[in-house]
Amino acid sequence: MEKMSRVTTALGGSAISGRTMFCHLDAPANAISVCRDATQVVVAGRNIFKIYGLEEEQFVEKLNLRVGRKPSLNFSCADVMWHQMEENLLATAATNGAVVTWNLGKPSRNKQDQLFTEHKRTVNKVCFHPTEVYMLLSGSQDGYMKCFDLRKKESVSTFSGQSESVRDVQFSMKDYFTFAASFENGNVQLWDIRRPDRYERMFTAHTGPVFCCDWHPDDRGWLATGGRDKMVKVWDMTTNRAKEIYCVQTIASVARVKWRPERKWHLATCSMMVDHNIYVWDVRRPFIPFATFEEHKDVTTGIVWRHQHDPYFLLSGSKDSTLYQHMFKDASRPVDRANPEGLCFGLFGDLAFAAKESLISGDSNRKPYLGGDRRYPIFFFKKPDLTEQFAHVSSALSVFESSLESKRMDWFVKTALLYLLGGKPFAELCDHNAKVAKELNRPQVSTTWTMLRLMFSDPANLSTPGPNNISKLGNLPLMNSFSMKEMGTESRLDRSKGESRQDNIHLEPGNSLINSNNDENEETEGSEGQAEYMFGDAELDDDDLYSMEHEIQAVEEQEYTLPQEAFPLRHEIMDNPSVPEHLQQDKADSPHASGNEAEVMCLTPIESLSLIAISQPLFSPHLPSRFFCPVVREMLSHYAEQGDVQMAVSVLIVLGDRIRKEIDDLTQEHWYMSYIDLLQRFELWNVSNEVIKLSTCSAITCLNQTSTTLHVNCSNCKRPMSNRGWICDRCHQCASVCAVCHHVVKGLFVWCQGCSHGGHLEHVMNWLKSNSHCPAGCGHLCEYT
């Protein structure tokens, strides 16, 4: 390799100085890296590859590395790294799968030095060894990591993670031979560069891709990881198993994470999408950022601390085509704008309230402080620490107890266990759940279930009333029509003498006694528009229309009377009203009218038929189910706002498609997640699983699939299967061979948990019908249940 020379002179040993500043770039940046003495920064992207000098007041462009008439894809960079030992050595990861090194000491315009094209897909990350000058590591989208010796023309070792794409690789700052790799399947692997055949350790760090990782510069065993699950986790790698010691919840996917120099607890992060800010977190206080840089207008793609021993300058590149130097003293502090009060309900109804001590100290009603009891005010005060820059606040915590009876949650547990959410007809589910609520002394909930049954049940499924009574309230038709049997003269005369009478009345919506469309209807049955001639003042004074008897218990006979003017009068009522002329001819033709009635009509309860009806009902006797949907939607919202999310979710499941479209998916998901969380707190795992299974929300039904992990061991060597195929990567034997037919099982596989042997479900079932020993010949007594 040629002798390397500097592009610019160093600042000579003087302290780093500067201010918050920025410069516009020619194109969006994908990554940035700074040289060892913090005087230059390299910016790389798809259409930019330049070196800028860091001066007191501004960025100054020093070198453009994209040269040539037709720049190749080798200049299209996904990542860039400046060697911290050799100041003129750069490495880039190209989007075409090439790994390129650059020698800034070359006298020619083209500074390209080495070109490695062994990766088949985009290279996501390159990393120099912190102390070994010629060692370079790369991680690619093809799932492989390669170690290069820059004195050779090809890689010296290849590491296969047996997994999906490699998103980041980082050499350990303290362990010479160790590096960490993060993958898109959520795993993190630790490797020894001397053993390329197998990783030293692997653990699942995130639910989703792990985009970045970074070793702590001072603490040997700390590794920070960030992923799509919006979390930053700090792992202690000195233990036998990786231990999560800190976790920071951010608001977007974490694209970059960098430990802050000279500050053990601080790290900086930026997001891959949505959020444009850069956050500095104190991992001991993960709920609010320690500092925020809000200068960028688009997604931040690269962050780096200017010097490995200076915590006050941060450099960043972005898709908004700007390069920034941030002064830490200019960062905004979210804690200064945070609400200093907190309020939270406990699981059993206790209320905790925290506020500044100065706001509460004047309250004379406060109970005295009892240090050993958590249910009385507890005071916290942090002693001043010069290295701690968070604001110091003396706060007081008050816990208010609820009454013993109100804290009992037995009703919730019993309701969850006894409710039926599926497997039976809708009406039976409603009746059962109403009964459960009634037995638990929850009358309002019980009534709600009963009303839901009445609203949404098919009328054909309602019970038929008996011959001498009217059924329950749920079976009554809408009373928009009246129909009565004929009442003979003798019965009316008897009733007029004071004797009691009871008629058999049938009110059935589908079997009306009157048909308004029948041309042969009697005139007393309501000829259209002329019904007002049927009533007189004296005819309805003491007239019983009908009596009603309840299905379960008999009630005293009640008289139902119509008002004296049942319909608006259009003429003066006379003692013997005559029929209008245009009706006399029709009445004369009626087979039910006598000659005298054709001449003069005088309707009395004795002389006329007692059939009264409104010929055209105002609306259908049975309303469609969708008519009640707005009411049910408001009811569900009411229960949810009152905290009874159990009722809201149960009704959602039982009603199903009847109400699902009336409530937006986000609200449904919120209710489901709240109810499932409560069930799991009470360890009602079976009920929780049933709710997930019966859920009407697609975001909930997939929970069982995403949160279930099946660990499989090889049936030959008894070791865990690390890959997804049928071949064990240790003993190189097919792990899913049927013990009966000795063929590979490509479908449903059943195995014995005692000896790990198994095979096709049908074959194993048939074998165990006549044999008790394992078909593989291991001697184990297998049992199929």
UniProtKB/TrEMBL annotation:
Entry GO CC: cytosol; GATOR2 complex; lysosomal membrane
Alphabetic keyword roster: Autophagy, Lysosome, Membrane, Metal-binding, Repeat, Transferase, Ubl conjugation pathway, WD repeat, Zinc, Zinc-finger
Enzyme class label: transferase
Region annotated Disordered, chain positions: 486-528
Membrane-crossing segments per the record: none
Basic and acidic residues: compositionally biased ranges: 487-506
EC number: 2.3.2.27
One Pfam short name: WD40
Pathway: Protein modification; protein ubiquitination
WD repeats mapped onto the chain: 116-158, 203-245
GO biological process, one term: positive regulation of TORC1 signaling
Reactions catalysed: S-ubiquitinyl-[E2 ubiquitin-conjugating enzyme]-L-cysteine + [acceptor protein]-L-lysine = [E2 ubiquitin-conjugating enzyme]-L-cysteine + N(6)-ubiquitinyl-[acceptor protein]-L-lysine
SMART domains: WD40
GO MF, any single term: zinc ion binding
Localisation per UniProt entry: Lysosome membrane
PANTHER family in UniProt: GATOR COMPLEX PROTEIN WDR24
Role played: Catalytic component of the GATOR2 complex, a multiprotein complex that acts as an activator of the amino acid-sensing branch of the mTORC1 signaling pathway. The GATOR2 complex indirectly activates mTORC1 through the inhibition of the GATOR1 subcomplex. GATOR2 probably acts as an E3 ubiquitin-protein ligase toward GATOR1. In the presence of abundant amino acids, the GATOR2 complex mediates ubiquitination of the NPRL2 core component of the GATOR1 complex, leading to GATOR1 inactivation. In the absence of amino acids, GATOR2 is inhibited, activating the GATOR1 complex.
Sequence similarity: Belongs to the WD repeat WDR24 family.
Annotated protein name in UniProt: GATOR2 complex protein WDR24
Lineage: Eukaryota, Metazoa, Chordata, Craniata, Vertebrata
